[in-house]
Design brief:
The complex is a heterodimer of chains A (about 140) and B (about 60).
Chain A: H1 2-11, H2 17-29, H3 33-37, H4 41-60, H5 74-88, H6 92-99, H7 110-137
Helix pairs in contact in A: 2-7, 4-7, 5-7
Chain B: H1 8-27, H2 31-60
The chains are: A mainly alpha (about 140), B mainly alpha (about 60).
């Protein structure tokens, strides 16, 4: 049984990149846009609203954007680079924020801290939305 | 740019809401499953907020 499953998986034709690259790129740039392209309007609207609102709340709470820089120790470097990748995953929102000069210094306090977490989490949620758009595009999910 | 100051509970509530919505959409396949899982996630977040909050309060005396 296991052998036949493996054989079937090996025989499955590779999914052409052209079938999913558009929705995934759109999903990165604008949260939910991949779902809109794939005619999943309701889900796209919910994703858009949730991720954009989370990002905006993060901005309004003056959260900090991470920069890709090495820290004094390995953990700090990991947090900086990981946070930067998560921020970057927010797509156009991150690009516009930095383009318009958003540069909040890291201040102590729970509100700023929540803001930073909201900004990072918005990016990570957008990664989930991109993966979902990919699965819909290749037909793995409805 | 407008700024806002949310309490711990307000911020945690919004966090729970947004994450629950996205996780339910991206992990489940039918609308009924999505609704159930979203509500379940949200309730878990809120229970954790109160549970860990009380644990910290009691731990600090």
């Amino acid at each position: 049984m296991a052998v036949s499953t493996t054989t079937q998986a090996e025989k499955a034709p590779p999914v052409p990149v052209a079938s999913w690259i558009g929705p995934v790129a759109a999903a990165w740039l604008v949260p939910g846009a991949g779902h809109f392209l794939l005619k999943k309007t309701g889900r796209g609207m919910l994703l858009f609203a949730s991720i954009v609102l989370m990002y905006l709340f993060g901005l309004f709470m003056r959260g900090t954007m991470f920069k890709p820089e090495a820290g004094p120790d390995y953990l700090t470097s990991l947090i900086n680079y990981g946070g930067f990748v998560s921020n970057l995953a927010s797509g156009a929102m991150y690009l516009l924020s930095t383009m318009f000069g958003y540069n909040q210094p890291d201040l102590p306090g729970p509100v700023h801290d929540y803001g930073t977490k909201f900004l990072v989490t918005a990016g990570l949620l957008n990664v989930l939305a991109m993966v979902d758009a990919y699965e819909i595009a290749i037909g793995k999910k409805d | 740019m407008p700024t806002m100051t949310l309490s711990h509970f307000e911020a945690a509530f919004l966090f729970a809401l947004f994450v629950s919505v996205v996780m339910s959409i991206t992990t489940k396949k039918s609308n009924k499953e999505r609704l159930n899982y979203g509500v379940y996630c949200f309730v878990c977040f809120i229970v954790a907020v109160f549970g860990i909050g009380w644990a910290m309060k009691l731990g600090h005396g």
